Amino acid sequence: MTWVLLRGLMREQRHWGSFTSQFAQAHPHERIITLDFAGNGVLYQQASATSIGAMVEQARQQVRQQLQPQLEQQPAHGKIKLLAISLGAMVAVAWAERYPDELQRLILINTSLAPHNPFYQRLRPANYPAIISTMLTGSQRQREQLILRLTSHQSDTAHAERLLNDWVSFAQQYPISRRNILRQLFAAMRYRAPAQAPQVPLLLAGAKDALVNPQCSATLATRWQAELRLHPDAGHDLPLDDPDWVIRQTLG
């Protein structure tokens, strides 16, 4: 069986950090695939998609390419499990809606979805000024500092400087353009999730998410009759703040 890990807005597969290796150790008999959406990571020179549906098709193509030899030998093993955070979770929901037979499991981390969640919960209004000014005019380091502050409690730890340096290095090697940032934001803003969950997901959320109100996940859990597991202390980037906790949820 295969797990596919999907990251969020402006993030690439390296932003999973050590989580990927820890996750692989906890799932020794399963394949782990991490992807970059167009405009991010190794695909930074490509134009980002302007719709979540297009992101689904891009992700599916990458997965199929990596699994093709396996599928030819064992077609029955074609189903995958999705673990996705934020924007990546929108892609996961759209994937499940379009191709329900391809997925065995769906785990969504700190996501928010129109029309179920109001705009002021999907992105906390207090962050608007900093996000607009820093994302559009700030330096790479200022941008990464803001992302770290808004998405993780690691900004207050001894590891913050090393983590920030890593992220700045990623941004310098594969710089995301402001145009692609706007294209990804546009895709997220225009996406509308189905009224009923295409596949009942497991929802994970950090109670101290400074970017997205965790009430978004609570609302989705109620409307979709899905299970919500709330971390009492983690922020938006749950796999960064408490990777062990997230991995334990995937084992159940």
UniProtKB/TrEMBL annotation:
Keywords: Hydrolase
GO MF annotation, one: hydrolase activity
InterPro entries found in the cross-reference section: AB_hydrolase_1 (IPR000073), AB_hydrolase_fold (IPR029058), Carboxylesterase_BioH (IPR050228), Hydrolase_4 (IPR022742)
Residue ranges of domain Serine aminopeptidase S33 in the record: 35-241
Domain of life: Bacteria
Keyword Ribonucleoprotein assigned: no
Protein name: Alpha/beta hydrolase
